[in-house]
Design brief:
By secondary structure, the chain is mainly alpha-helical. The chain is 77% helix and 0% strand. The chain folds into 2 domains: 80 residues, no CATH class; 351 residues, Up-down Bundle (Na+/H+ antiporter like fold).
Length: 434
């Protein structure tokens, strides 16, 4: 009850503050929005957790209610001003994901991970592309394109819709304190899958742009993708080395120093066409698998320092959802959500048929691929920029699917982790409890 009263009080205070200084353009508007979303997400997470739902769903729900779609306590201009939070949170969670992946311990999982990636992830890209082509009569912007152009655009959107969410997976693993073969498989899988999606989207969107524009510069496309992937890996190795040195020789203030690094990665990465997700992921992998430093020394301090960004990130994801656009595209969104989940389920079952695969992985691993959040939203924004003529409509479709999966999939994954018996096995503190 205290959390509910706190939410009501926060809403009233935010409404009063907005009446005096509306909009992000006013002095302190952006900072006010950050502070409000931070506290609202925290108390909403507590409230949802009391009734057996993931705190993550509470964070997202707080953003939806406070955002432009409902109460408009946080205006659209404020969410735009806070866009850096998304990049920083993605970097933070990718760094954590990389630092969790000890390649020696996950080596036995690589065969099944590779099989699932091929059958479930790439298979889902093909299935969603076909589904969009079939749905073309009820998707106006696709129906207005020539067939060849529509196929290429459908392929780009299909790849974007195949994205997973290491952020959601890491959040729920931390919340449930899960540890075991299913947890390690899912974590490895979503990281590998998102790398596959990032590279595939770069290739397919470049081809689509070339076909629609009537000119194909294959060398430029390959060069751009190579720079983004391999350049990001190189920067990630350097950052991992820096963090290792800091952990070994300085030790104090590790959490804040790492969050500062994530801010720099998020801000500078996009400016020089590098991917913050790959940079942070590589840094975490280097820290855990190559550096002499103990990555566990970073974990507790880092969680405490990154918690405010983490809460606001998921609340912002909810605040950005356009419920009106989602309602207008309800039919295609529903079909795509069901088709995507079914394709991931079938692909995972086919990929885990061997007798050497743990039955828990065979039964539940697909649920780790269903959640969507940061990367999918980032790709939705790229879809809008890549195809400006109909980008807003394409963005609404992708975000509609992501929104539905944001609200439903975390609950499903949390149930899976609890049923697997792996929840509560991890010794470290719960991120959501700080």
């Amino acid at each position: 009850m205290i959390a509910i009263f706190a939410l009501l009080a926060l809403g009233g205070l935010m409404h009063a503050a907005r009446s005096f200084a509306p909009g992000a353009a006013q002095p302190g508007g952006t900072e006010l929005a950050f502070g409000f979303l931070l506290l609202a997400a925290y108390f909403a997470g507590k409230t949802f957790n009391k009734v057996g739902l993931p705190k993550l769903t509470g964070y997202i729900a707080a953003g939806i209610v406070a955002g432009p779609a409902m109460l408009d306590l946080v205006e659209k201009s404020m969410t735009v001003q806070l866009k850096l939070v998304g990049g920083v949170a993605t970097s933070i969670l990718a760094l954590q994901a990389g630092a969790e992946l000890n390649l020696t311990s996950v080596r036995p999982l690589l065969k099944v991970v590779a099989s699932i990636t091929f059958l479930a992830i790439f298979g889902t890209m093909v299935v969603l592309t076909g589904t969009l082509i079939v749905l073309r009569p009820v998707v106006p912007f696709l129906d207005a394109l020539p067939v060849t152009h529509a196929v290429m655009v459908a392929a780009s959107i299909g790849v974007a819709l195949s994205a997973q969410s290491p952020a959601v997976v890491m959040a729920l693993i931390a919340e449930t304190r899960s540890e075991g073969v299913l947890t390690r498989t899912i974590l490895t899988l979503v990281v590998v899958a998102d790398l596959a999606v990032i590279i595939s989207y770069g290739v397919v969107s470049s081809a689509a742009t070339a076909v629609i524009g009537g000119q194909i510069d294959l060398a430029a496309a390959i060069g751009g993708i190579g720079w983004e992937v391999f350049g990001s890996i190189g920067v990630g190795v350097f950052i991992g080395f820096m963090l290792g040195v800091f952990l070994i020789y300085i030790k104090q203030g590790v959490g804040l120093f790492t969050v500062m690094i994530c801010f720099v990665v998020a801000e500078v990465g996009h400016a020089v066409h590098l991917d913050p997700l790959i940079i942070a992921l590589t840094a975490g992998l280097y820290l855990e698998n190559v550096s002499r430093a103990d990555a566990r020394d970073l974990e507790h301090q880092f969680e405490q320092a990154s918690l405010p960004v983490y809460l606001v990130f998921f609340a912002l994801a909810g605040a950005k959802l356009d419920l009106a656009a989602l309602a207008a595209l309800a039919l295609p969104v529903a079909v795509i959500v069901i088709t995507r989940a079914t394709s991931l389920f079938v692909g995972c079952r086919l990929a885990t048929r061997g007798p050497d695969v743990d039955p828990v992985v065979r039964r539940l691993a697909w649920l780790g691929l269903v959640p969507q959040a940061g990367l999918a939203l980032a790709l939705a924004e790229l879809v809008r920029r890549t195809f400006p003529a109909f980008g807003d409509a394409a963005f609404a479709l992708v975000v509609g699917v992501v929104a539905t999966n944001e609200l439903i999939a975390p609950v499903m994954l949390r149930i899976a982790l609890l049923r697997s018996g792996e929840a509560g096995r991890r010794a470290v503190g719960d991120v959501g409890e700080h």
